[in-house]
Amino acid sequence: MAEFWTDFAWPGIWIVLKILLFVIPVALTMAFLTLAERRIIGAMQLRIGPNVIGPFGLLQPFADAVKLLFKETVIPTGASPVVFFLAPMVTFSLSLLGWAVIPVSAGWYISNLNVGVLYLFAISSLGVYGIVMAGWASNSRYAFLGAMRSAAQMVSYEVSIGFVMISVLLTAGSLNLTKVVEAQEGMWFFIPHFPMFILFFISVLAETNRHPFDLPEAESELVAGFMTEYSSMSFALFFLGEYINMIAMSALITTLFLGGWLAPFNIIPFTWVPGIVWFALKIAFCLFVFIWVRATLPRYRYDQLMRLGWKVFLPLSLVWLILTAGFLVYTGKLVH
Fold first, then answer.
1. Exposed end of the chain (fewer CB within 10 Å): N or C?
2. pTM of whole model > 0.85?
């Protein structure tokens, strides 16, 4: 019995605890991100935003959750029920799986994979399946068109995201995200890779279907796109997945370009602040830019979106990758 607890039970309990230590803060952040987005956009557009439920409207996310939990789930006529319900579950699950390899501070991670970036590539490439499943299973033209748009959009921008990430990994000399952060000890990678930092951020907006690239759910032409036929908790799971993806992508931007948990200046007042606090502040900054972009920019046309991805971002990221590799070989800093 003692061997069972030593060999199986305690390691299993510790893994579950680590997962909960990540999932619960991410879920709470996601809940209040929805409130923050509505309040920030309200302030930018000179209106109030939600402020009734709870002090300063802080209980609004919980009121929304209760409302969605008790609404009726409607299944469209002709829909495929199994796939219809699986789609939001797949999207929500994949949005959480990416956090397994993201280090939030020195030694704070669920799994320290040596090929953590490859794991993130795999998870992000699977993200399109939930949306395509939703569009097909809904038996709706609007949902199907939204799903096809999303599939093409996500595949298009994943290519440029991949090339940018490879440029960063060549500079760091490792696929391990912890070592990528440690390689930025002297200088954060957004400085030498600044053009790719901007390109990566814009590509992330397209990858997460966020404004101005929210064409899969364009209200003016597709009602709500692939989510048109969803209601109740099935809609909530898509909604949760989108916002958790935003937080995860902000964490990835922080890890690859903004020094992860490292302080901005190596001076005593800044080094006293725990690394996880710097990590959270950098994520908050990225999320603010997500919201800022939504409040200020008009939506792209679909042909403009695809042209930007294939004719501008792809050549630029490929050229930058070649230049980065050439520079590292010339200076003898390329890790074999």
1. C
2. yes
For 240-257, what is each residue's pLDDT tens digit? 888 888 899 999 999 999
pLDDT at site 320: 93
Same-domain status, 224 and 287: yes
Q: 């046309």: which residue's tokens?
A: 301
Question: Do 97 and 59 sit in the same domain of this protein?
Answer: no
Q: Would residue 336 count as lying in a domain?
A: no
Segments of the chain assigned E as strands: none
The token pair that represents 245 in the structure block: 């993806």
DSSP state of 5: I
- The identity of residue 210, as a single letter, is R
Cβ distance 94 to 127 under 8 Å? yes
Domain count, the chain: 2
**Which DSSP string do the residues of 182-208 spell out, in sequence order?**
HTTSSS-TTTTTHHHHHHHHHHHHHHT
pLDDT (tens digit, 9 = 90+) per residue, 252-273? 999 999 888 887 876 667 667 7
Give yes or no: residues 239 and 302 share one domain: yes
Domain, as residue range, for 16:
1-70
**First-residue to last-residue Cα distance in the chain:** 48
Token representation of residue 302: 């679909």
